[in-house]
Amino acid sequence: MDNAPAGRVVFSQLFNESETFLQPCIETFLAYTGPESVLVLNLPQGRAIDPALHALSDRVFLINGGFQRRLWDHTILAGHLESFGFALEHVPDFSHFSALASNSLMVRRFDLPAALSALAASHNETRLDLEDLPKEWHWRFVRQMPEYIGLLKREWGITHATSNQIEGLFAARSDWALLHDRLDALARLGATMRPDLPVPIEEVLPGTCFASLGSGRYTYVCHVFWDRQVPSQSRSSNVDFADILTMAQHFPPHICAFKWFERSPQAIETAAVVQPWSRALLAELADAVAAGDQDRMLVQRGLLERLAATLRAREAWRPFTARWWGQGASRSGSLPDQVIEATGQKLPLEDIGAPAGAAFLMMEKTGAKLRLGFDITEDGGATRLRLRCAGPAGDGALQGFLYLDPQVPGRLRTLRVRLAQARVAAEEEAVRAFRFTADTGYCPPARLRFTFDTATHRAYHFREEGWHPTEIGWYGIPILPGMELDLLLEMPADGEAAAS
């Protein structure tokens, strides 16, 4: 670590994501930090680590955790303290420590002097009496945990509490050491956790410990958009490009990271930060926005629009069902209108001429009797789906999904759905409710990456990342009473699965 200043910062990140996200995550950290910063990536217990990753930088350490981490107990905090303990042995001269989430990413260069100034200006107190905690947030659960409160009093000497976020929590080594020295006591606190009272200790204990037993000084180098839709609702990033381009105007200089980003380099906002060329472009645009330089912004906008138009002209698509039917076969299938009762059943659709397992209905348990039918044809280089559903009057509840698989194995799966502009107002809600699954028992919302408008159609681009290159996956089209969908379904024409 040549030219490393005395008193470095160790960042800890608990990493449970796919291999495709690991190296971009490391490279992004290195791009936004200098010799003053070290990263300890704490991977799951027993997970294999590619030896080549150890050689990326002497400022990055990859370790395997010694225990399974869970969302609602002490193990997330214990994982960061495990990284802290590793740093004590391998980075002995560090003076500060910060915890990062794996779905937070640095978006501008870490400014150590600014972080130290913010830390010096901070003053945090424990204002909440453990015997009279509020009835909101996590405190409503802590109130019901007398054993946890009792241990804090007896073993920690703590009578008052405060809250904190773990994402970007930045404090002196001496304050974090107060927690690390009490790992056994932390485990005993964790043992008091109850599944019906989910409390993430990492959000209620560090600040309490720093303020009650330590300096009371801590700050954050990551901003979390708590006021926006969270990933459990959206499954995607809630960071907007405007947030990055206007950081200088809206965030103090010690803030260098944002949360939430989707944990995939395929996600547009994530790709913008983890790719070297787009990082450089974001920095140029942010400088132009901060300076109010309209000429620079216009030049970059023209560049981006010309590039986008060029790439769009080179796109090639084929019908979603291109592999369904053999040569000479009728390239169409249909389900004649029929009455189906929604009782939670799975209905194979092999009679429509599709390969075995390529199409099926998965109904909800509503008990509604529906009149359902659809037609699938290959129409002008695309697959045209016309789906009809009539149900009980006034009942607009989801009744199920029509699942379709293009029979193209591979980690990456892209679906383009085109909807005629005249039908957007009536049918867009259904398109945005698409699902995706590689396991028929778990069907989360599909990831809608971006949309494009032309004079005739609106195109919705879904892109999914599978877990294994040989698995298949289904896109699910929602079934709603009174719905008449007319969609064009397409996939890339370039052998994407083989390339991925």
TrEMBL record:
This is Uncharacterized protein. It comes from Belnapia mucosa.
